[in-house]
# Entry
Amino acid sequence: MKKSTKRKIKSRVKKELAALLAAAAAFLYYAVSQYLAPAAPPGELEVHFIDVGQGDAVLLRCDGESALVDAGTPDCRESLLEYLQEQRLEEPKYVFASHPHADHIGSMAAVIDAFGCQTFVMPDMVSYTRAFETMLDSVERCGAETRLGQAGDTFELGQAQLELLWPAKGYEADDANNISLVIRVTYGPYSFLLTGDAETPVEKEFASSAAPVTVLKAGHHGSKTSSSKTLLDVIQPEYCVVSVGAGNSYGHPSQEVLDRLERMGCQIYRTDLQGTVVVRVEEGQLYVDTAR
# Structure
């Protein structure tokens, strides 16, 4: 047999062996991955993406404890308070103000006045708007502990773990969107990423500390300034919730972002179309309920 023929046979055998080993490794991974992944805790986690129009408000509940991330616009005050009352909300363990724009903190003062707050978390940024000042007045009146959040901070909510991925220590931004608190919520094998209005340059900064998530809240109401390919390639969300107002003047959500998510096979929910979206993890299973 010629040497060249022998080399070809050896090369083919090596390739076939490599393919066989890769297939075996993939089979082994899928066979044991269910045992390697952390089991869901025996309790229940609820994440309410509340329909507040063109704004953000997210209620987290786990094992009898609650947290609120943002509180919509000033115009949603009555509907937000009514929803939280219907949920029989008691004093939240945490209230997070992602950043000082009125579509995120517009009704925060009213919520804190109504329900109180144990620990209030905000980024290290000052705003001289009425919404910001009345929010701080309410925090002071209720006697909450106040913390300036930064990457690496962690919080426990029942058996759920909350971690800040952004802002980095010492980071300064001219645009308040890019100082947004980015919160990763982990509950057993399930995780949620709440990114406020953080935009693409910032997403590229914290993507290195991110990981695949179950549910993403689309950044900046689905604007093309956020939910970048860089971030999505890292986090690979299975579901995405877009908190956005019907017929808004900004053109949110961007079709570019929706297409990007759909190409990944991500299931999209929108508060302008489906109202409030509630994601529940109960007895190890994930459920999604919508208002309409």
In short: The longest strand covers residues 160-166. Confidence is low (pLDDT under 50) at residues 3-11, 17-36. Residues 5 and 118 are 76 Å apart (CA to CA). Residues 3-36 form the longest helix (34 residues).
